[in-house]
Amino acid sequence: MIVERARALDFSRALRSWFRRHGRSLPWRETRDPYRVLVSEAMLQQTQVSRVVNYYARFLDRFPTMDALAAARPGAVRESWDGLGYYARARNLHALARKVTASGVFPDDPAALRALPGIGAYTAGAVASFAFERRAALVDTNVARVLRRAFAPRADFTTSRGQRRLWGIAESLLPATGKATWTHNQAVMELGALVCTARVAKCGECPVSALCQTATAGKRAREKRRTKRAG
Q1: What is the count of structural domains for the chain?
Q2: Whole-model pTM?
Q3: I need a surface site. Which of 26, 74, 98, 116 has the fewest CB within 10 A?
């Protein structure tokens, strides 16, 4: 699905403006170092932000660079990950560090990133966007929820067809530059985490509610009910 360009521009601009005022200060948002961005993305998979903050700092204290992680014993990496769960993430991160260190190249292209251990479509887009400021789309659970509610209420992210549709929407919303894309991608994720949540959509606090199909449909339904009661 392709979002009409004027609407896409309005959506992204409103989101980026909101994010600059309301986005949380998180340590991985203060860096463009691809290794540190990658560590954060690995940890944030299936884990709440509040838990990751302390683990992130502790892990980087022990393994401050890709080379340091590559040279570490598997047991030491596993120990530093203890308590975060989903330990395949740590094994994949360690294998990736060894592969990148051996090659001497950390790719900045999403397709090349996907060839590395443990890197899927979302993580490839996240690292390309957040570390290298590439104009790359990303879709995780929070992003999928925002895009589905705003542009495709009937899309089912659990199906391959629904996933392709939401990825197409994400790509059509990207700003023209990589620097603006960094803010845009962070903003969509933040909106899904703080406002357009799984439990409740706080449409009254949403900067893009006027552009959202679900919010506008809900508003029309409420107005219709009020009109019936008044009559």
Answers
A1: 1
A2: 0.92
A3: 74
